[in-house]
Every structure is written in structure tokens, then in C-alpha cells.
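Dear support,

I submitted the protein below through the web form. The confirmation email said the job was done, but the results page showed an empty box. After a refresh the structure appeared. I'm attaching both so you can tell me whether what I see now is the final result or a partial one.
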Amino acid sequence: MEQIGIITDSHSSITQKQAQELGITVLPMPFYINGTCYYEDVTLSRDDFFHYLNTGADITTSQPSPGQVMEYWNRALAQYKQILYIPISSGLSGSCSTAAALAAQEPYQNRVFVVDNGRVSALLHCTVLDALELIQKGFSAAEIKRILEQYRDKMTIYIGVDTLEHLKKGGRITPAAAAIGSVLNIKPVLRFDVGTLEPYKKCRGFVKAKKAMLEAMQHDLTTRFRSWYEKGEIYLLAASSATREATEQWISEINAFFPDLEVMCDDLSLGVSSHIGYGGLGIGCSCRPAEVTI
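What the results page shows now:
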């Protein structure tokens, strides 16, 4: 029996295909669309999701049931002595707290370690990659949980929003503000930092929004994350809910702005995309734990 396995959820932006390549398991998130339950990247493709989103379908996100979570855990524990369960941040969903309560009970106590380091989407993907490296270096599941949670604030991401419609639906802006913003071509930039998604800046047009994100990222790399940046121990991230062409153009712009760093690009998870809509672009970073680079 192998020592430590990893389970995350599809809020990590890790696809089922990528999960197989990494040797991990991804729990698909449920979405209710016009009253029918679908599962991300299993019975709901990305293209179909955006078709529903763009045509005004009634879409609600949901947590996996405790039974579904335990089913995945039981299957993994037949193969591994212990597992790291790395779900979406507890600041964004109650599923993490539910999992932590389950893990404190038999037969999961000291066998399932729930990691809550305040992340989602591409940032959660980085956490999984760090966990895999820490396993290879021989750390225990309890040690890895501690290390990853200690690094919860060593990350950030900025997301430029192309449409105000879904921020209005989600109650983040009023209908009046959305109407005025559309007339003025306002493109908000949001910042995700340790479990919260908050307004960062309002820009006139998406070109200015992208410029604002690049400059904000440059400021963070040369201040908050300077030591990791100078050592090259940082993931520079691009994220997108936009077209493939727009995404590739955005990656090119990031590469030009940060020629010394490799860019890792993920599609924004459907959970995040449901709140910001189609056409969003993001840039972020995640510092690699010191234990990974020893």
C-alpha cells in the first residue's frame, strides 16, 4: 500500500485528464442548471457550461454531499495509508468545513488530512503541485498540511471582468451600478487573497484593466514576494474564462512584461467563472514553500 494520496476538487482547475497524469483524484463539483444536476468535467463540459451561462440559464453552484466525499475517501484509503484532501477555501464554500468535521471522526481520524489554505482555481492547482513535491521529499501528511497552511498568504491573483452581468446577479454590484458601468465601459479588476474575492480597481476598458493587473502583479513581486521572486521560487499564473485566442494573447502580454518567468496557465474553474462570466482574464502568483526548495 502506498503512503500518501491526494484528492482535490474541480475548483482547482485541474481537469480529470490532468489528474490522471499527476496521479491524483479530482472530485467533480455539482452545478444545477435549469434544475438539472451536472458534474464539472464529467457530465458538464466547459463549452456547454458557457453556452448555458451566455444564454441566461438558471445556474447555481452546490457543495458535494458528505456521502460523495466519503465515497472518494474510502476508495483512496483502499490504496493509500493516508490522504491529503485539498478542497476549495473555507472562505468561499462550506464544503471545506464539512470535510474537516468528517475527517475528525472514525474511520478517517489521522488518515484524512484536510488542507485549508484559502485557495481556489489556479492557486489551488499550485497547492496540489507543492503537495506532490513534499510527498516526494518524504514529508508526512500531517507535516504537509502544516506547511501548506503556513503558506496560505503567500499568493494572490487579480481577475479582470469583461461583463458586469454576473457580478450583478451575484449581488456584488447593484443593477444601477451595472447599468452605469456598462455605459461607461467600466471593467472591474477583482483581487483574490486568502479566501476572499474583493474589488481592486475600476478601469475604463479592458486594455486598461489588463495594464492595471500587470502593474499590480509587478508591485507584489517586488515587495510582498520579493525574496521568492529573486530566487525564481514562484509560480507566475495566467487564468482565463475567455476565448483561446484572447487567452493566448494575454499569455503573450504576461511573457513580455515578465520575460524572466515561465507562465503557468489554467482555465478559471467553472465555480469562479459562474461569478465573473465569460471573457475574464487573470494574473497571479504563488510562492513555493521553502521545504520544497531545500
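Response: this is the final, complete result; the empty box was a page-load delay. The first strand starts at residue 2 and ends at 9.
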